[in-house]
Amino acid sequence: MSKISLIIKREYTTRVMKKSFILLTFLIPILFVGMLFLIVWLGGIKDDKIKTIVVIDKTHLYTKVLKSNENYSFQFVDAPVEKIKSQNTNNEQFTALLYITDNLVDNPKAATLYSEKQVNLELKSYVSSLLNKYIEEQKLATYNIPNLKEMVEKSRTDIDMKTIKWGENGKEKEGSAELALIIGMMSAFIIYMFIVIYGAQVMNGVVQEKTNRIVEVIISSVKPFELMMGKIIGIAMVGLTQFLMWVILTVVISTVAGAIFGGNVDVNSLHQMGQMGMQTVPTNAMSPEIQGLFTALNGVNYLQIIVLFIVYFLGGYLLYASLFAAVGSAVDNETDTQQFSLPLMLPIIFAIYAAIYSAQNPDGPLAFWCSMIPFTSPIVMMVRLPFDVPVWQIILSLTILVMSFVGTTWMAGKIYRTGILMYGKKVTWKELFKWLRY
Amino acid sequence: MILLEVEKVVKQFAGHLALDSVSLTVPENTIYGLLGPNGAGKTTLIRIINCITAPDSGEVRLHGKRMTPADVQQIGYLPEERGLYKKMKVGEQALYLAQLKGMTRNDALKALKYWFEKFEIQAWWDKKVEELSKGMAQKVQFITTILHEPKLLIFDEPFSGFDPVNTDIIKREILDLRAKGATIIFSTHNMETVEDLCENISLVNQAKIVLQGNVADIRASHATNTFVVGSKTSLNENNFEMISQKAQNGVFESIIKKQVTESNNSLLS
Question: N or C: which end of chain B has fewer CB within 10 A?
Fold first, then answer.
């Protein structure tokens, strides 16, 4: 067995055998799937309690319009507003008070909802929609055009645009735009997490070897560069293993749970959740622009995404891990690593923000440049991929990434070689640059 | 036969000259002592021999040939600052280190079994290093150093941290290893062990060799020809000079100095 393989094997086995690794690997998929199911299930539970809404309608026009439904029951009262307000203690008598002072056709602002607690959106939108529909009909009626109401009804359409992608052989594939975006953001976030977690493991491993002094024994048997690479590669494999385990477990657990819970969860509600999760604006303000965004996502090339995910993860990890190794070799103890690892974390954090903004404008300049710069490209490119990035851009981005991690590994090797035997000296950035020249 | 040659090695660190044209020769199958105060350059020299650092100029030759990084397989190195992976088990770790030195797993297992029995530490095989005391860990580390039966053994301050009993054990092992054909270099402050073990020594101070050669020769050439003699009767000055004499418990203890031209035997007459 070559020496590097021995080192890789040791780094891999010691970490994979740890209880914390095994626990995390199995726990996260269970928690994740459990959370998903819980949210969908709870969201489906109807609130049995019927809320009372007291209505003071000075115009007496809307008594028939405000229909009670399974959640709200409307009580019509003829009394001054102040009296009703004082009667209500702790929302026990009624949830809210609707006060209509004037004919809403002439004065649209004449309706007010009062409540001790902030009125919830569902109630507001229910009442608004009931009143709006009625007012609309009233207004149409004033035009005195016969059958106007039917004409308006017929011209109302609900466009249900299908998203179909033109395949290479002219085949058409219907895409699920929402799911594609979820995958993009999730892969970007997973790469971000993995780079941070496993990069830190590399750094800590290096520092530990320094503090417990075993590094001198090892480098009397192997070259420092071999030790560094063995460690980086070994930990990369731990990361890949964990990722694969997560994917497999999530699939297994969700299929099993899906079978157990029957039809409670179906793909549609998952879609809906994806929509709700991806938006940062409230659902009842979903604008045509956002709808247009989703329709732009036509079909997803899953194979491309999975392959590129692994490639970008490895590229980004190798880039950052080599730098983390260099940092670890320059300090004497784990607390000192903070001063050096902060500048390393900044581009990663920036990348996540860039990814979020790029999701809204995947072909814009921010997205383009950030998916080329090697420090941010693994994260930002993942978000762009569902939007069909041109092949030349992917190739360019990957070439830059590969060249960069070769470069940083070479640099890190030099710093590592000098740093691991140096103790006691407080290292500064200037010092590190000097080591590059040794 | 010369095993190791160090020729005019120079090593400069930023602002500090660690080795100033240092040369030494280690004959095969001997024990070589490296002495000197702290900061003299001993550890730097040892690291250069181990190909851990490279000299600025000068050469290190093993069996007459210039040393390459591949040659470290034939060296067993016990550094001054000792340490092992704390969370790894003893047996597993010893196997790992042996394999890094080029041993196959099976050979390493057999050898480890032998040494663990010899040192009576079989019970520690599955213990994590952090569960051992310092002396125990150093025993384990000593074993990992010699496990692959290297031709050249380098110990940097091997006796520091050992209690007298263990120091004795290590001493015996070193002699044993030499009997089996190994060559040993060790650095130390402990003059007693040097006198007990070494055939040749080098004394390093402030980056230079200040004294070098065969121990017996050095002793002879620096001999002050002064002896401490115990006798039942008081001594008369015949062929020697009496420096002092005192009587204690019926025994006379005298410090005498012989004249250089006389042999030691003449004193007995």
Answer: C
3-state secondary structure of B230: strand
Q: How confident is the model at residue A72 (pLDDT cuts 50, 70, 90)?
A: confident
Given an 8 Å threshold on Cβ–Cβ distance, is A221 in contact with B72? yes
Cα B180 off chain centre by: 16
pLDDT of A268 > 50? The answer is no
Note the helical H segments in chain B: 42-49, 90-100, 105-118, 134-146, 164-179, 191-197, 215-221
With a CB cutoff of 8 Å and minimum separation 6, the contacts of A248 are: none
Region of poorest pLDDT, from A138-142, A258-262, B191-195 = A258-262
What the block records as the tokens of A98 is 């609707």
B147 touching A, CB under 8 A? no
Residue B204's H or E segment, with its range, is: strand B200-205
Residue A177's pLDDT band (cuts 50, 70, 90) = low
Confidence band, pLDDT 50/70/90 cuts, at residue A280: very low
Round to whole Å and give the CA distance between A341 and A335: 10
Substitution target in A217, A231, A332 with the highest count of B β-carbons within 10 Å is A217
B84 touches A at CB < 8 Å: yes
Query: A43 or B29: whose pLDDT is higher?
Result: B29
Q: How far apart are CA B98 and CA A217, in angstroms?
A: 11
The answer to whether A273 touches A40, Cβ cutoff 8 Å, is yes
Query: Which among A1, A209, A223 is the nearest to B69, CB-wise?
Result: A223
Instruction: Considering only the beta carbons, identify the residue of A6, A14, A219 that sits closest to B52.
Output: A219
How are beta strands B240-248 and B251-258 bridged, if at all?
Answer: antiparallel
SS3 of residue A276 by DSSP: helix
